[in-house]
Amino acid sequence: MAGRFIFQTDTDVENFLNVEENKNTKRKTEGYLTLVLAFLATEKEYRKLEDLRPAHLDTYLSRFLLSVQKKLGEEYEPTTLRGFIASVERHLKKQGYSDSMITGYKLNMTKRPKETLVDGSPFYLTINNLSREKLALSSAKWFKPQPMGVNKLNTLMRDCAKAAGLGTDKQITNHSARKTLVQKLRDSDVPPTEIVQITGHKNL
What we know:
two-stranded antiparallel sheet, 4% strand, 8 helices, mainly alpha
């Protein structure tokens, strides 16, 4: 009687899992890209993603992430939103796009002072005004080890809101994002004790 099981080596199993993982990644990427392109169509933008200039692509993706929702009107989880970005990144890389959203973030991290790379350090730092010659050096640090000032942050938020097409009908400050986050967490029934750990508030 022939055996009912075919002998498989560890390599066979690993190869099978890799193939299935690649299939899932490809399927998700195609699905996410379809949704992004559908959004662009609502903006009357029919060019390919790789044909868009970085500034235009950044604006479109910002609007997309702020407006996309599930079929029943529910919001996507943050991990899914990161999946959208990763899918766009993979597609653009495959098409030989000159810019990279992820690479830009990694480059930013290499230009920060070493002491600001530890947990608890502020993300927005004071800009280090260097000459063009010094900026060209690979060892140059773009930022100082001090947090960015409140007034500069407020200006930055207004500029970001304008670039994202949010309009100027209401005042948007650096506190707006924090306030919105708290409201979203409360609406999702996140316990207050967990909210303060996320936002950094000293009390409930």
